[in-house]
């Protein structure tokens, strides 16, 4: 079972309700989540305020406290369109200014990251191909195969993909195989990083709140692909996003590429059919490169 921490509601002495999360699979998870929420807030996203974060003596005693958000809102065409525009604004507004160093991975330079209760390598990289494929897909594929939660071919596919996209970087031509797999080279954005429907709350006024981020500097299609992995977002969200911040041609064909990492993480944590789904996603990625 994935241990992302025990959650609860606490009422402060002044009557203010707060959301608490204690423990987790690894030390540093509370700090990572708090840093992500603060980074997203600074970039203009609507997130709960971080009220307290404690490292604790070990993973079990780390603690995060954030403002309580009352949910209960329902999706409507209006809420979905608003969310699409807000996500586009986050991605567009968080791009580096001309002349600034643009690195993919950690938003704060700390290479240790988490996706759910799995460790991921967010070492800052000049190449998105290195960050996504070499530092995440390849080691996670090996972990699933070694753990018996994915077919042996998953490792081979990941290594083949790394070979095919080798050398793809910001100055690569559109004819490079990496462009077909990862999309045309573009600047990094600050992304939520784990944007399934459960990590978006709707309050009674229909406003969307982002919670439980795996915040990082990444290709913006990471968030769009995660939104499609388990459903829960209306078509209006994608249409409004594309209108506000147009996506590169072929983005829908690249969705499985950007679902590969969360699928591998789910295979690591839960087993089941996720290993086969990850295999299919990697097969698709290799075909795109070929």
From TrEMBL:
Tell me the domain of life.
Answer: Bacteria
Quick check: keyword Lyase in the entry?
A: no
The protein's GO terms of the molecular function aspect are: kinase activity
- Record keywords: Kinase, Transferase
Membrane-spanning residues where?
none
* Classification via Pfam families: Fructosamin_kin
Q: SUPFAM superfamilies per the record? A: Protein kinase-like (PK-like)
Instruction: Tell me which InterPro entries the record gives.
Output: Fructo-/Ketosamine-3-kinase (IPR016477), Kinase-like_dom_sf (IPR011009)
The similarity annotation says: Belongs to the fructosamine kinase family.
Q: What is this protein called?
A: Fructosamine-3-kinase
